[in-house]
Amino acid sequence: MAINPNSLKNLRPGRKPGSKNKTTLAKKDIVTLSRSRTDVSWIEDLLHDEASYLLDHECKTIDSKDLITPGPDYIDRVVKESDRSNTVLRNFQTIFNHGRLRGTGYLSILPVDQGVEHSAGASFAPNPIYFDPENLIKLAIEGGCSAIASTLGALGSVSRKYAHKIPFIVKLNHNEFLSYPNEYDQIPFASVDQAFNMGAVAVGATVYFGSPESKRQIQEVSQLFEHAHSLGLVTILWAYLRNPSFKKDSKDYHLSADLTGQANHLAATIGADIIKQKLAENNNGFVDINFGKTDKRVYSELTSDHPIDLNRYQVVNCFLGRSGLINSGGASGENDFAQAIKTAIINKRAGGMGLITGRKSFQKTMKEGIEILNAVQDIYLNKNIKLA
């Protein structure tokens, strides 16, 4: 169905803050979009020249035929061949069978651990109804998510009402952000047994790779994941980088493809079934910071400067896709709708397994949040958006 470009004028990147009707974005404009499973015209209207840049890109680095890709048969084709138990297979399939992306092999997850990581005020002041975890779960359900990931306390507070209605992912460790001066260390807040007893199907954890504390975190998380697998729970690792030396000459290599790729490889090594990673925005971290080991072919043959090729290198380091890569949606701000769509296109075309979209959805009204979640899901449902 053709889209009226006028209905998208407030969605276009570059619209100045304070523009008229900005606050009525989702209420008036986003909800009018009609997105079929083959139509890409709404993406072209939204992203303009960037649409062709992303939708028409041909990856000439690592061939998609070499990837272990998501799909309806992912559990039978990939996970079943591993050392995961029958219960892990069942719980993994439970996540794939839920929400608007059920049966596709792709995932759309709502993550809400920012109340600990960033402070509850910073996270929920834009929409105070989300101080109540029940409203976050309602957002995940109404938004058609595959699962919700949150803290032990948040999910536990309403688990009896909702654990059988949407898959729960309990985040086991957090960066406690109240100490002064601020410290940056992931410490256990919850146990695998607590997650299991509330009916969760999966657990999540973070490692700050590259930090002085990372060696301890790797050991802790490896043991947590071993116990989780023994109880049949799926494991998800937030494989983040954290080291002030990763910023050099105004460039932030926390987002480099080579460093995040290695973080992904370490995550898969300690048993992560799914790896959550920030979208790569640059490269050459090992070279420019001058540490570790790499190979010049990483930069001349295995990657390019195109965002899909950078993201593909992240996928490749997830054992070529044996561990699924989900990218984070990033912070909330201007042009959230367009940014979320771009990230979803990059992830899908690179060979990723989906998106984990938090602040861009829950720092909006529930209606706006649902629209953003659904739009992201429509990228993965669209049959004309294929592997690059």
β-strand percent reads 5-15%
Uncertain stretches = 1-33
Order of SSEs: HHHHHEHHEHHEEEHEHEEEHEHHHEHEHH
Q: What order do the strands of the largest sheet run in, or round the barrel if closed?
A: 1-2-3-6-7-10-11-12
Q: What is the makeup of the main sheet?
A: 8 strands, parallel, barrel
CATH class category label: Alpha Beta
In one word, what is the shape?
globular
Can you offer a commentary on this structure?
This protein has a single domain (35-381), classed as Aldolase class I (TIM Barrel), CATH 3.20.20.70. It is globular. Strands 1-2-3-6-7-10-11-12 form an 8-stranded parallel β-barrel, surrounded by 7 helices. It is α/β, with parallel strands linked by helices and 388 residues long. It has helices at residues 25-29, 41-47, 49-55, 74-77, 86-96, 114-124, 133-142, 152-156, 159-162, 192-197, 214-230, 257-269, 285-289, 296-300, 307-316, 336-350, 359-362, 366-381; strands at residues 107-112, 147-151, 168-171, 173-175, 186-188, 202-209, 234-241, 247-248, 251-252, 274-277, 324-328, 354-356. The chain contains 18 helices and 12 strands. The model is unreliable at 1-33 (pLDDT under 50). 48% of the residues are buried.
